[in-house]
Design goal:
278 residues; alpha+beta; 4-stranded antiparallel beta sheet; two-stranded antiparallel ribbon; 7 helices; binds iron/sulfur cluster; 4Fe4S_Fe-S-bd; iron-sulfur; iron; 4Fe4S_Fe_S_CS; metal-binding
């Protein structure tokens, strides 16, 4: 099994899955029914033994609770990371609504998340079938993600953290760099979702076409203006607490869905790298 085959499995899955279409049952506006949730994924690959993973254990990056690829799977050779960009229909719907998330975005966030999990399981199954042990860290029982401060994590209170971070993995795999809004700006933009797998399958790592963590962000401030609750500022970046409070409000209002994503639309990094957009 090679990179081409891995990518092909994912592309076929996303292209052909009935769950990649917005369904009537979601009660979405008729013009959205039948539209795609995601466009084709883009992929990045990183060596599981890469020393850069040690950086993620530093307190100012993630912290000592971050588990490196070989802590998830001792025989790991490669980390596979991918980005699923939201379709134009999903992004356009959220551009129109100024404060609350659009129906298309809510479906993209919740049904889209289910599809992302299915894609991860599909890739895991195929790579295992080819004879290589593989783990999806975010679906493993050892995975955790916290929003409330926990006192004794690495000896200091930490909140809004996890022991595996899709965006950091994507950054190390060459997929993109961080924006002011804390999303990751890729060649397909910032609006979308990330996933990753750790595997024994040996695949050539990608070169990272950047040297600093925020190389693609121009600090234009468009995401600052977009945020309905002023959770982003040029000086301090994103306040996860304020953002979390707003997301909880959307969860109450749109139960069983939630989401916002205003900082990912109507911005120069929405669908590409600012300055490099077609
Ligand atoms: S909108 Fe501008 S400041 Fe915000 S993340 Fe994108 S490029 Fe950076
Ligand atoms: S997701 Fe919404 S609330 Fe959170 S930072 Fe982005 S625009 Fe603000």
């Amino acid at each position: 099994m090679d990179k081409k085959e891995v990518i092909q499995i994912a592309e076929d899955f996303i292209e052909n899955s009935a769950d990649n279409r917005i369904k009537m049952e979601s009660k979405a506006p008729s013009e959205l029914v039948g539209e795609k949730i995601y466009d084709a994924p883009i992929f990045g690959f990183c060596e599981a033994s890469d020393e850069v993973f040690a950086i993620l254990k530093e307190p100012e990056v993630i912290g000592c609770h971050f588990r490196s690829p070989r802590e998830w799977l001792p025989t790991a050779q490669t980390v596979i990371s991918f980005f699923l960009p939201y379709s134009e229909a999903v992004k356009a719907s959220n551009r129109e609504q100024k404060i609350w998330p659009s129906w298309g975005w809510l479906v993209g966030r919740v049904e889209g998340h289910r599809l992302l999990r299915s894609l991860l399981l599909q890739l895991e199954m195929n790579i295992k079938k080819a004879g290589y042990a593989t783990i999806v860290p975010t679906l493993d029982k050892k995975f955790f993600s916290i929003t409330e401060p926990i006192e004794e994590l690495c000896g200091e209170p930490l909140a809004f953290t996890s022991n595996w971070s899709e965006r950091h993995i994507a950054y190390l795999s060459g997929l993109g760099t961080f924006g002011l809004s804390k999303g990751l700006i890729t060649e397909k933009g910032i609006a979308g979702r990330f996933g990753s797998l750790v595997t024994e399958l040996q695949l050539e790592p990608n070169q990272r076409p950047y040297e600093i963590y925020n190389a693609y962000c121009t600090k234009c401030g468009a995401c600052v203006k977009q945020c309905p609750v002023k959770a982003i500022s040029i000086e301090k970046g994103k306040d996860h607490r304020l953002c979390g409070i707003f997301l909880d409000k959307t969860a109450e209002k749109f139960k069983p869905r939630y989401g916002c994503g205003k900082c990912q639309v109507n911005v120069p990094c929405e669908s590409g790298i600012p300055g490099q957009n077609k």
